[in-house]
Amino acid sequence: MKSIKINFKTFLIPVVAALMIMTSCNKELESFPIPSVEVEPPPTGTTIASYISTNSNYSFLDTALRTTGLYTTLLDKPGSYTLYAPSNDAFKGLIFALFNVPLNSPDDAFIGVLKNPAFKSGLTSILLHHIMTGQLTAAQFPTTFPNVAYLSTLRLDPVLPAFAKLFPSARAPYIYVNNVPITSPDLFSGSNGVIQGVPAIVAPPTGTLKTAIAAQPTLSYFRAAIARADSGAVGLSRFDSLLNYGLTNMTVLAPSDDAFKALIYKLAYGSAIAKGDDAVTADAKANLAVAAGPAFLATNNVTTELIKGVMAYHFLAAESGEPDLPYQPIERIFSVNFSPTPTFIKTLVNNAFAVHPGVLAQATFTGPIVSALTFTGLGSLPPATPYSGTPANAIPVPGIGFDRIGVNGVYYIIDQVLLPQ
Amino acid sequence: MRKNASYLFAFILAQCISIAAFAQSTTLIGKVKNSSSGEDAAAVSVAVKSGTDGTFTDDKGNFRLTTTQKFPITLLFTSVGYEMQETVVNSSAQLIDIGLVPSNTLGQEVVVSASRVPQRILESPVSVERVSAATIRNSPVSNFYDVVSTLKGVDITTSSLTFKTPTTRGFNSSGNVRFNQLVDGMDNQAPGLNFSVGAIIGLSELDVDNIELLSGASSALYGSGGMNGTLLMTSKNPFKYQGLSFLVKTGVMHTDEKQRDISPYYNWNLRWAKKMSDKFAFKINTELIQAKDWLGNDQRNYNRSAGYYGNVKAGTRSTDPNYDGVNVFGDETSVDIMPFLKAYTGGGAVLSSLGYDINKPINVSRTGYTEKEVLNPNTVNFKVAASLHYKITPKIEASLAGYWGTGNTIYTGASRYNIRDFKMGQYKLEFNHPNWMLRAYTTQENAGGTFNATVTTQLFNESWKTSVTGATVGNPDPQPTDWYVQYVGKYLSDILSFVPDLTAHNNARAIADIGRPVSGTKAFKDAFNTVAGKPVPIGGLLLDRSDLYNIEGSYNLTSVTNKVADIIVGANYKQYVLNSQGTLFHDEDGPIDITEIGVYAQATRQVIDRLKLTLSGRYDKNENFEGRFTPRATAVYKVAKDNNIRASFQTAYRFPHNQMQWIDLPIGFDLQLIGGNKAFVDIYQFNTNQVYDYEALRKGTVTPFTVKALKPESLSSFELGYKGLLADGKLLLDVYGYAGQYKDFLGRFIVVQNRDGDPISVGDTSAGQKYSLPINTADKVQTYGFGFGLDYRLPKNFTLGFNAASDNLKDVPADFVAYFNAPKYKVNASIGNTGFGHNKRLGFNVAYRWQDAFFYQGDFGNGNLPSVHTVDAQLSFKFPSTKSVLKFGANNLLNQYYYNSIGNSQIGGLYYVSFGYNIY
């Protein structure tokens, strides 16, 4: 079956802009306890909404559900949901991140924010992202990779059935939704669904990867590189279209501006030396190239083919089964899905060079959480023995980890440009 | 061909001018009347006994006969329906006054079609039925053509009020390609559309002399196609039937307003024929029919995905998201929304969790329009015909005739076709001599604004809202403006909100249908007509300007060979010129010619006193197929006077018709309907890019398909019959039984090819190029049946008729769709009187027809047809002085709607009053 390609250009993303700065929440994420206590099987016949009202660890969630009306309009009605219930601490982290309310403030301070009408719309979006259609008990979390997509009730478009996706997964001994571990599994099973407790907010997407990347101040070179790679290309074959294509699940490595500057310096310096310049002149020329800013990538000093090849190397890909385009960016790899042992992952480069080994990726785990994430390219500048170069490190979102979520995938900001050869 | 014909015409004219010799002659004048009713007897043959001179009485019963014979002259007066009478005339001063005695004997009619020579119907070697002008006059039918349906063994498929297709012995369909129809010797098939136009073009009621029906195989005499019978309609010769006549019928239909408002029916006929001299006569005919047609109104749900095995099934628009009504159009567009659902849900896990099987398609059809909303069911049929007749010698009659008709009607083929402004003309030059015949004619067709209801409505739906954007093969690019995207949008968000599935479907349809044009509005009509006016495949219009040219002749050698046998030989040459401007046939580079030639011979010998044997053979060659020889052997054994047993062995065949040879039409996005001509092997590179059995591939088996040359389909059949007069000539009994075997059935088969010439894979069932190509199936099927008919003449002009027939198919291979389409049993019964009451001026007829229920199979649809009962009746009153008839008639008197093929119009009651002037 041919894939149905739907262009999301016309989608409206009603998620509030405030969510884009969801940083530094959930400090405790790295140190939360792994549950060891069996949760009592909850009584059936009651709704998940009424259960939340009875558990004091989730009183902020109860307040939030009542304030937004979702208590009565959704969770107290017949249905079949999985509620990823953020604990009170999770809400504190959110409110601290968004409104700078200190974590040690009295509960009323946080409840005041949750009841603030100005926050109602944003809060509704966040809550809807935690309510998943369909019931999954902990034992039913899929173990497969790629991750299985489920739909949250957060609708992204008023006409089209575009809902923010959630990816419940089991990676023994842990279970996750997206990159967030479930710390209170099977908290409750009621008439209209099950509850899985999470210690942090499951960050909702703020738009497609294109809009997310466009909003990143440290990715101006990356955007310029995309524009250069796309020059002369049309339609859906452009990287820009791909990043805006709403129905796939991509994993993109986005080198930071500093990474590009370092690469440009090396390129210009090497080129000057090759022409016979001395080290001082070469250094001056290289500094000039860097000073040109992202515009350098639009000049004749680099070729479109070179940029295109380098960009293709930053789109992780998997076999599609379609002969025309055997490798496609169709997997959403959360940080917790990378292997602790170095593993090659194919990229879009494999469409041109089928035998290319790809990018070497490695995750370092602390408990259920990834504490370091590295990617190594096949080539480096100046040329060195393959793989002997220093790996690129993923730059974390303070407090939340490395995963940067879009409607159509996840991206990581890395501190080096990866070279395919 | 055309050029040759004009040379021939010039030559004949030269012959005419040079004939001038006259002998000393005598002129006799007289008048013939019906001795019983006193009315003038028209068209009575007046001949000099032991001579060649003869004439006919005119519409006033008068005759004027010029002869070179010496007195006393014996005149012989003959006419069907009267006893023969002789009179001796002694002087020309005598005004000859004759009263002919009406005869009430049966079986005296003469038929020509059964052996190409005139013979009494009682002595015909094969089953033949004859309808005379008198039968039509006394019949309750509103249109003369309908009288065929009352004949023994006949099945009718009624596409609409004016489009009816008869057949015998099974295999009926709206466009029957196994049944030939000839009008005054001309094949009246529309050459490009491949259906006989019946009475739409051709004769009008007042001009019908007789209709003969040959049941069963008849290729041995009439060539390709007549596997299930041949209908021959013959018009009145203006030398014999003179005068001005008219017939005005006015009726009402839809009296119960079940389908549409009560509406009038008009059928006006005019005939004028005049003998200007013993040498020259002419006639002009015209007929106009106007009515609000019956409607195809079957809104049952149809399972179209089963293809050849489709059937009606349960469900309505509001209970089946994939509803496809039989007579509802546009809802044939059906798309599986599961890929959309999977795409929007990132693979469908949430659907599984809600209980949906994501490996099963969810097909959804577009919202259709009923037939009433898209077709114009206002039937108009206008025809005009004229002919000039000139007797070059007393024995050689030349005639130049033209028949032209136009109209709107509805026809059922693979779809319902609205035939709009269809025009067809037939033009003929013919020479007749008692011993030979030469005939050249052409058929000129113009399909006008004819469009296909299904395709047009589907494309109309696309025109107001695209189903799925860019749905060319393999690369759909759905947009939020697409019907299916909007549908899926609402449907998915509803089921994710736990709205019940069917409600979600109906809510989704309501959203996707926003902006749907309302039928009947000007916007709707304009938009619809735009699509209907564009040729297939971008619209629904059938562009067709195909023509046929034919020349044929025969010679009766009997005068030379009668010591051995009576021998007739003949030949014909036929050329089709297909011209669809690339819209239907593979003729974008110019018209395609198809040439056929045929020769035949027949020898008849009275072997012993009571036994007559006839051997006939015919050889036909179509340029695209191997030659075909079809023999026929018949025997007639005279058991007693007017009692004959007949036996015959016949073969019949048909060449694949023109569309089956040359059609080249894309259907939907990935199926190409192609012809069987070998040219297509190169056109679509079947030699270098192998094609495969599509159905097998769908099931996972790779089976290469070799394109074989098409063969004609053939039939061999055996018949035994008896026809005789019993009960002192009051009872005519006809009985027959037959058995036949069909082989090399022509059908269609779907193959698939990889688009790039790569090895085939299962993926090509969706991504490959599919072709539907004609094939001969290896299966053989047997048919058998029987029938009998009784005609009984009671005293006081009462008549009783009864006939029954049975047609059966056996040895049908499993999964074989034969399109047999014949009820197991059918019965006609009638009672009538041709003259009773005051001065025997009243007449009546009541006819009842019943046919059994059966399972109908057609290109448009399959399904069970309920049994049909109809009663037709008429009561008439004659005014002998002007030969006028006032008639009250009813077709389907009880107004019980019936239909005789899936998807066809449902026929209700038609009640009319007619007034005919100078009817004879």
Number of beta-strand segments of chain B: 55
Which geometry of chain A do the CA atoms define? elongated
Number of strands of chain A: 19
- The Rg value of chain B, from CA coordinates, equals 30 Å
Name the helicity range of chain A: 25-40%
Poorly predicted sequence stretches spanning 5 or more consecutive residues of chain B: 10-22
How many H/I helices of chain B? 15
Structural class estimated from helices and strands of chain A: alpha+beta
Structural class of chain B: mainly beta
Quick structural overview:
The complex is a heterodimer of chains A (421) and B (920). With 421 residues, chain A is of the alpha+beta class.
Account of the 3D structure:
With 421 residues, chain A is α+β, with helices and mostly antiparallel strands. Chain A contains twelve helices and 19 strands. A four-stranded mixed β-sheet of chain A has the order 2-1-9-8. In chain A, strands 11-10-19-18 form a four-stranded mixed β-sheet. In chain A, helix 10 runs antiparallel to helix 11. Chain A starts with 47 loop residues before the first helix and ends in a 7-residue tail after the last strand. Chain B has 920 residues and is mostly beta strands. In chain B, the strands form twelve sheets. Chain B has a 22-stranded antiparallel β-barrel. Chain B has a six-stranded mixed β-sheet with strand order 39-40-46-45-41-42. Chain B has a five-stranded mixed β-sheet with strand order 10-17-18-13-14. In chain B, helix 7 (453-464) crosses helix 10 and helix 8 runs antiparallel to helix 9. The model of chain B is unreliable at 10-22 (pLDDT under 50). The interface between A and B is medium-sized, with 31 and 32 residues.
